[in-house]
Design goal:
The radius of gyration is 15 Å and the shape is globular. With about 160 residues, the chain is of the alpha+beta class. It has 3 helices and 7 strands.
Length: about 160
């Protein structure tokens, strides 16, 4: 039997410690979350994909009565970036959740979003910095590999 230990580094910042640029991403994600279509859960999520040239592509969760036909904010932003700017690498993704008009503590992407983040990194051959923005703190990882260390890849097919 072999044993493998997997360690990740997650940096936690107070919201006021973010750079001006990162605060802008968070604020945009909050505004986009408020516009999410979430009539069933009331759980609104906004995401901002930041491209290498600083272009911002936003997304929010889109629920559907025929669950699980909806789509998470992270995938809306990443797929939108891929559709509109297929050659532009994503350098960062900021994510925030809002309920009843209030920003919640930081949340982590679901498994499907983690897998899409992993494939985005593989396709562009560079990591995506992920900012999980909350009401008071922001958790940051430097790569999707930190969120999904044992991801499905081409070797599994």
């Amino acid at each position: 039997m072999n044993t493998k230990t997997i360690e990740i580094t997650v940096r936690t910042f107070r919201t006021e410690e973010l750079s001006t640029e990162e605060k802008q991403w968070r604020d945009i994600a909050v505004a986009v979350a408020e516009q999410a279509y979430a009539p069933y859960s009331g759980f609104r999520v906004g995401a901002v994909a930041v491209l290498a040239d600083s272009t911002l592509v936003t997304g929010n969760n889109q629920e559907n009565m025929a669950s699980p036909s909806g789509l998470c904010a992270e995938r809306v932003a990443l797929f939108g970036a891929g559709a509109r700017y297929p050659k532009a690498p994503v350098k960062a993704l900021a994510v925030v959740a809002v309920r009843d008009g209030r920003v919640l503590p930081s949340i982590a992407p679901c498994g499907a979003c983690r897998q899409v983040l992993q494939e985005t990194e593989r396709r562009q051959r560079q990591p995506v910095r992920i900012l999980l923005c909350g009401c008071e703190e922001v958790r940051c990882v430097d790569s999707a590999a930190a969120l999904l260390p044992l991801s499905f890849d081409q070797m599994d097919m």
